[in-house]
Amino acid sequence: MPYLAKILLYPIKSLDSVEVEQAQVLSSGALEYDREFAIFDPQGRFVNGKRHSKIHLIRSQFDIFNRTISLQTPKLDSPRVFHLDEEQPEIAASLSDFLGFAVTLRQNPFMGFPDDTNSPGPTVISTATLTEVASWFPGLNVDDMRRRIRANIEVGGVPAFWEDQLFSQQGDIVSLRVGDVSLFGVNPCQRCIVPTQNPDSGEAYPNFQKIFVQQRQATLPDWVDSSYFNHFYRLSVNTRLTPSETGKIWQIGDKIDIITPPKPIKLPEN
């Protein structure tokens, strides 16, 4: 039976995650605290792993309820703790000093800074999918892949690529319920350069994208709507929520039900 196994929030876009037991839905459909902050360069562009591999060298630990971040960079002798609301200029100064150029920290408490602003709901993947994809790359494990893919919601109790039934013909959506929260699957998430990079060092895994594309195509279940796959560098599912879900709570262990009848899944034989 599908259930909510993990909730991961990323309070500052591109920095480390924090695992929580529950999360609240905002009116935008995003999860509270997720990508609430983002780092910007002087030209107003995101400072992230796509453009700056040094971002992977920054370690951060969040206490989202006390609104603090413990920040560690190679230029700091020990971690420094900042208040996310009261010390934003100090956080930006510390990041600027390490990165070697001026950055600012911006906040959007209503939607955060999602990659897909049309579908700002949590990204969904199964634990089995992360385990399977990690097996394609010698030396990587499920936690390595979790940190590379950076999804919000992990589904347990299902086979690999279960989430690929959460989208249908282009223009259609699939409805599902997590506990008492309703949401819609929209499309498979197009990946960027970040999964190719070691989340601690920024070093690229040799031929990561080539291996990923070959294996993703080879393992794509036959019940998947392939019309979205103009290329096979896609993993996890983008979602959308309506304003009626505002204030509802996601809770670890919540049962997950697909409301729109999906295509049948053929489970692997034991």
UniProtKB/TrEMBL annotation:
Protein origin, superkingdom: Bacteria
InterPro entries per the UniProt record, alphabetical: MoCF_Sase_C, MOCOS_middle
Pfam families: MOSC (PF03473), MOSC_N (PF03476)
Ranges of residues in domain MOSC: 88-259
Protein name: MOSC N-terminal beta barrel domain-containing protein
Provenance organism: Nodularia spumigena UHCC 0060
